[in-house]
Amino acid sequence: MQRRSFIKNTSLTLGALALLSKSSLASFLADPAYNIKMLTDTIGVFTESGGTILFMLGKKGTVVVDSQFPASAKHCIDEIMKKTKKPFELLVNTHHHGDHTAGNIAFKGLVKNVVAHKNSKINQEAVAIKNKAEDKQLYPDTVFDTTWSKKLKGEKLTLTYLGAGHTNGDSFVHFEKANIVHVGDLVFNRRHPFVDRTAGANMAQWITTLEAGTNKYSDTTKYVCGHAGTGYEIVITKTDILLFRDYLGNVLKLAKESMAQGMSKADFLKLKEIPGSPEWKGDGITRPLEAAWDELIAANGKM
């Protein structure tokens, strides 16, 4: 929205705009909310609202990982169809949250199969029933327990579940030849995460899951995460993942130390920074603080 702000605040620009034709003015004001960045000749990321979408323009069909919301999913579909006439072969959900699956419905009648971890489907169904939104869902028709693979022409796609983290149904989605892994919301790059304890999230296990994931892939693997803080990228490295692992450990450490000092939960939730992880700042800190506190209380049998 920088161009619109510039127009509003610069009288000279308003004068200059008067000289533009209607079509030129429309083009100047057209500030797309969405963006596509190609990582290879055939694999790219789409960002608009919600979790990052990763897609592959396959030789026989297109593979899409996550779907954001219905409107943004439609934008993604439209942009992909400008690049290829191949059908949509597969839609993958990294986990069940609405900013990653609500857009599934836009693929109804377009995609052959939808795949996710079995817990992701269970969670998606439970949330839809609770919110009376079952008619707005396109559920996975293919689920797996620990691993699932599909050979694609010129590529192999492998989904792996390595344990609870952000939820109890988060997948690592690996395009093996390109060596690109979508980690969904298993990583929030320099942004305070949502920790969905109602869907089996566990911060201590999350640390172990991330370590297992980085050990599974090579040092040259390129990762795509679901969300990033302002000024940071959604295309990340192993180093970024391990820094987020350390952040989770620092949150748990802070909660444990605060409890030992006799701090109340109410006062704990007023804290504004995570010692040892200064790059994670801003809004949303209460989410991991509360999750860490509740997790430690539950682990000690006090809940």
Features:
303 residues; alpha/beta; 22% strand; globular; Metallo-beta-lactamase, Chain A
Care to describe what's here?
This protein is of the alpha/beta class. The N terminus is likely disordered. The N and C termini lie far apart (46 Å). Helix 7 packs antiparallel against helix 8 and helix 8 crosses helix 10. A hairpin with a 5-residue loop joins strand 2 and strand 3. It has 10 helices and 13 strands. The protein is globular, with a radius of gyration of 21 Å.
Report Rg.
21 Å
Question: Can you name the CATH architecture of the largest domain?
Answer: 4-Layer Sandwich
The CATH homologous superfamily of the largest domain is termed Ribonuclease Z/Hydroxyacylglutathione hydrolase-like
User: How many individual β-strands?
Assistant: 13
Q: Termini separation (Å)?
A: 46 Å
Sheet with most strands: 7 strands, mixed
Spatial arrangement of strands, main beta sheet: 1-2-3-4-5-6-7
Kindly provide the name of the CATH class of the largest domain.
Answer: Alpha Beta
How helix-rich are the residues, as a percent range? 25-40%
**Any low-confidence stretches, pLDDT <50, length ≥5?**
1-31
Domain unit count: 2
- Indicate the proportion of strand residues: 15-25%
Structural class: alpha/beta
Summarize the helix and strand pattern as letters: HHHEEEEHEHEHEEEEEHEEHHH
Q: Determine the number of helices (DSSP H or I, runs of at least 4 residues).
A: 10
Cα shape? globular
